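sorry to bug you again but im stuck and you know this stuff better than me. what follows is a protein written twice so to speak, once as letters and once as structure tokens for the fold. mainly i need to know what kind of three dimensional shape the backbone takes. anything you notice is useful, everything is just below:
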Amino acid sequence: MPTAASAPTLTDGVVTLRTLVMADLAAVVEQSQDPETVRWTFVPRPYTEADGREFIDRTAQGWREDTGCGWAIEHDGRFAGLISYQPRGGGAVEVAYAAHPAARGRGVMTRAVPLVATHAFEHGATAVLWHARLGNFRSRKVAWRCGFTIGGPVVSTHRDQVVEAWAGHLRPGELMEPRGRWLLPPVLEHDGIRVRPFREEDGGALPERHDRLSALFSANLPTRGSYAAWLQGRRTLEATGSAVACAVVDAISDELLGGIDLHRLDVPPFAGTGMLGFWLVEGARGHGAVSRALELVIPWSFEPLADGAWGCTACRPAAPLTTWPRPGCCGEPVSRPSAPRASRCGRRPR
């Protein structure tokens, strides 16, 4: 790693990586007290102004003593977050990043990480490593967009805690762009039914135990107690391009009625095909909710993935999706149906 009195300025014309200075103290403290930062990182708790001063001093010391490379991120003339890398042996370095809450959702980290990775490779790094706690999908999406090969989970310890994490790596010469699909559930609405992504709060609408009929025909349905782990598992499958989980809700109250799964979408011998399953909570049956939801989801599943998109649909370009029977399904393969046109990527039909 390079030894320097201060961080070199790196920019792509949209974001700028610069030296972290004491003038950033208030923003560093604000970022480090943010609930999402506290949830997914190991910042001191509570985080004080003294912690911020120590962090800024330690970052400057890393540059002087060749023990770490850290930057402040600037976007639109404002502090937007922090990014750094540390040596990990064998010539590899590990990147770490966190966005200021006011800068999230603007693609700041997707621009900052390639700048830092390029800097590391130009100074002899053999690999750039990445880790994030299991469930930190914001961090995982940044790594995915920047071309990291992602695996895991792996188990490690930090401050006497056992931590499950995803791990990724990027090597010199590899393209800093997505290596596969990240599938996104749609938001669709028709005839009193809305299909949307599952949310954390949906677990409260689930029973502690499913009734006998559900248990008989559908395996591994989420319950109120298992919902958090179930949702994390489904989102992980979406992140690997192998499944999409859609919540079926009442269009007026947004009350959870059940779910639709499109899965096994990445089996090589059956490219362009998948399996369909669905389930309803006990009180939602007998009102046609599944039929109306399928009229939305099935046409959406056939829509081709647009060139350059990062994953919006459950099928591959120009390849039809064929569904096959399974417990909880209707028992018949489906073909391309005639149904109301549905929008993708969270855009509701007009």
In short: The chain has a mean pLDDT of 85.
